[in-house]
Amino acid sequence: MKRINYFTLGFLILVTLLVGCSKNNEVDIPQNIEINDFVWKGMNSWYNWQSSVPNLADSKDNNSGEYFDYLDNFSTPESLFESLLLNPGTTDRFSWFIEDYIEQNNAFQGVSTSFGFRLRAVSINENNDIIFYVRYVAPNSPASDAGIKRGDIINALDGVVLNESNYNTTVSKFDNQTITLSFVSENAGNLNFIEDKTITAIELTENPVHYKSVFEDVNGKKVGYLVYNSFRSSYNDELNEAFSYFQGEGIEELILDLRLNGGGSVLTSAYLASMIYNAAGTDIFAELKFNNKHSDQNGYYNFENNLDVFNVSGDKINEEAINRLTTINQLYVLTSSSTASASEMIINGLKAFIPVKTVGSTTYGKNVGSITLYDSPSSDYTNENTANASHLNAMQPIVFQIFNKVGQSDYIHGFQADIEIIEWDYWNEILPFGDENEIILKAALDDIRGLNSKTNSKSNSKNTKAFDVLQLENKFEKDMYINPSFLNN
Q1: Where does a domain end: 150, 179, 205?
Q2: Do 197 and 229 fall within a single domain?
């Protein structure tokens, strides 16, 4: 056990003399473990698996001296936080510690330092050569300014040609502010150098309502198509406007592309479901269940007739009537392993009411969500406005599990696609969003036409292996969170 310093030892002796072992007496906490005290108490109160973590037992702080000694064993609050997670990486793949909650709150609304693109890494041959193909480019970003577009192929970073042996070290170059990318073309299995492009990351705000269009005649039907990349509440009005467009076009089918959507606001997910389901009214869309200490917070997100518009600070600035489609009797969702949390909530919530057909690959598998906990004991750690002003640390632990109206929540291994098409098998023929021949979109359109999906492809060798590029993902990429207002209702 780590030795505490003499000041702390003397303090704990004094605490013992004055208050004995009672945790009901208020004591001053040594400055060096003040944040650790917040971490433990916040997790003890809210953590979804609190009862299964021995060190989060209510009796842990019965004896003040032993409790402070325990907290003093951790050199950082993050190390204490990580020690309190249940089977990190398996049971709990999702909780995380926040160094600066102001920066994090901005990131929740799409403001972050970024190159402005998303990539997928693929091992393409028996030599274990790796390429990146570009999955997405944000408008007005360093990537778009450099002329990078969806479907481009990259085989080197800062002059290092990628393979499985050097991938882990080379991909870390994305942590740098500036990087040089080598672009290639493919012909008959050979990669041919085109050019190098150097880009520098900037603070970027991304609109998640990325692309919308209407296909005029798909087996006699008008089909709406929407690429939606994150459930960000500050873009609720832009999402609603997209459905106004679909209303005006009189679409009869909807294809919702969530391949890049890792989640976000539960409330925004309920709003999107309300735009899709024509008989929604105010029925139950999802049920949230908390731990035994907060069972009084269990509640529902209903379908809504109106939505709130928020600014990037999370303040409500307006209210709008929801633009609900009235001609959609089923939903197509394009999926990938990046489709998670609030995106999976759309699938799970709506399938209790209408057929939902998934096209692509198996989703991530996240049926739990979080809240931000601040060092604000008077609010049970939920109020940013009363947080301890001496630091900006916060936590984003899992605190609830989500169910649909009929009690279904069993998708921790993801939703397997009804029509399975592995996008990275087609790494050298990735087409723009909205192109009718784009491989995943085409499979959905073919199904509407009553055809079996045709995937005859010169590149579909089935020998490929994909890797995530975590360096280009925000830590909260697959988060699903609720606003504090839910807890106050």
Answers
A1: 205
A2: no
